[in-house]
Amino acid sequence: MSKKIISQINDRSLIKFSKEDSRSLLQGLISNDISLVESEKMIFSGMFTPQGKFFCDFFIFQTNNNKENLYIDCNTDQTQEIIKKFNMYKLRAKVKIEDITEKFSIFSLISQEDIFKVFGENSIDILNRCFLRNDPRVASLGKRIYVPKKLEKDFNTEFKNYFSNNLYERTRIGLGIPEGVKDIRPDKDFPLDYGYDQLNAISFSKGCYVGQE
Length: 213
Known about the structure:
Blueprint: E1 6-9, E2 12-18, H1 22-27, E3 43-48, E4 54-63, E5 66-75, H2 79-90, E6 96-99, E7 104-109, H3 115-119, H4 124-128, E8 131-134, E9 143-148, H5 149-158, H6 167-174
């Protein structure tokens, strides 16, 4: 019997940052260190107001070894507001910012086991055409899977026996982990009051960013 360990996350969007100044722009604005993003490593980060209050949070990852293309996984309710904020700060920087939500679907895999052991060799071909990243907040949240829309039908067919509705939300809430505007009031609450330093969202050594003080 298959373990029910996959659920779709429907309230997230993807924003793509491309061109040569993407990393330097993000580094001066986000609470985490963009240099930690590697081909298979995703980071969790926030963006704060000048007063240090919460504005938004998101995940950042890259594909393969292309360091110029960065992807932000954010709450759908804030997508356009986040894009507007980054465009306001970019000035003449060589950065292209696009909403590419329609190109991907996002799933959660609540498992810390090796995927070869969980699914077997036959399913790995599909997974290799997706982007799998460990959730950087806590190991118990497993992985996030970014599935290209053209592959979603095959993905759903291959893994249908592993699906469990709302598993991600139940797990997150059970662990007491806050998630963006669902739980935190923008412009009112302070990220440290919600344990963002314990969720690997804040670098205390990277240098200056908006709201650091």
